Amino acid sequence: MPNTTKTNFPVSNIRRFLEPGPIVLVSSAHKGQTNIMTMGWHMVMEFTPSLVGCLISSANYSFDLVRNSRQCVINVPTVDLAAKVVKIGNSSGRDIDKFAEFGLSAKPGKQVRAPLIDECYANFECKLVDTSWIRKYNVFVFEVVEAHVATSPKYPKTIHYRGDGEFMISGAETRKYRKLFRPGML
Question: Considering the chain, what percentage of its residues have pLDDT values greater than 70?
């Protein structure tokens, strides 16, 4: 049981406890330009259709590529790509071709022009379906229109960001609580 004694905590750092899931690499393309950005701020918004909300800073090179093309690919890397994922996040597509610089393979999508990153465990082809939050919050709402997932391992080791340069690797899987789960309440 964790210690329940608590102390005040800076609200600007609460993301260390609420980060929504694995770090992803968002690939985009528009008018002959491509880019890859590292992203930790995303959330599943609906199951059917499959909607994902992503925060892309307006200062990010990918912002205009995604906004203008109205599509992207959300790529899920595993821990073996961790160093490249961090380096991609520390560089700008304005200055370099990130596919070439980091030795990643661009693979054509089936439904979008943005390239899939072949080395990633999963690739989700996305189309922008709601622009109403972009101007106010920099939040893009995408529909996943095609999904490609590796057949193994069943539970990949994904990278999770905790803020301030701290990362976690996904932990052990458990079925311990499965009997308590009620799918209808999801």
Answer: 97
> What gap in Å lies between CA 182 and CA 75, rounded to an integer?
30
Is 149 in contact with 156 (CB distance < 8 Å)?
Answer: no
The SS3 assignment for 82 reads: helix
Could you give the CA distance from residue 31 to residue 24 in angstroms, rounded to a whole number? Answer: 23
Given a contact cutoff of 8 angstroms between Cβ atoms, the answer to whether 57 and 63 are in contact is yes
7, part of any domain = no
**CATH number of the domain where residue 76 is located:** 2.30.110.10
Average pLDDT, whole number, for the chain? 93
Look at residue 2 and tell me if it is in a domain. Answer: no
Q: Is the pLDDT of residue 1 over 80?
A: no
Q: Is residue 182 over pLDDT 90? A: no
Residue 62 pLDDT greater than 80, yes or no: yes
DSSP 106-136: EE--SS-SSPEETTSSEEEEEEEEE-TTHHH
| Phi, psi angle pair for 82, to nearest 5° | -55, -45
To the question of pTM greater than 0.85 for the whole model, the response is yes
Instruction: Write out the residue range of the structural domain in which residue 44 sits.
Output: 19-185
What is the per-residue pLDDT across 92-136, written as a single tens digit (0 to 9) for each?
999 999 999 999 999 999 999 999 999 999 999 999 999 999 999
Confidence at residue 162, expressed as pLDDT on a 0 to 100 scale:
86
Q: How many CB atoms lie within 10 A of CB 78?
A: 20
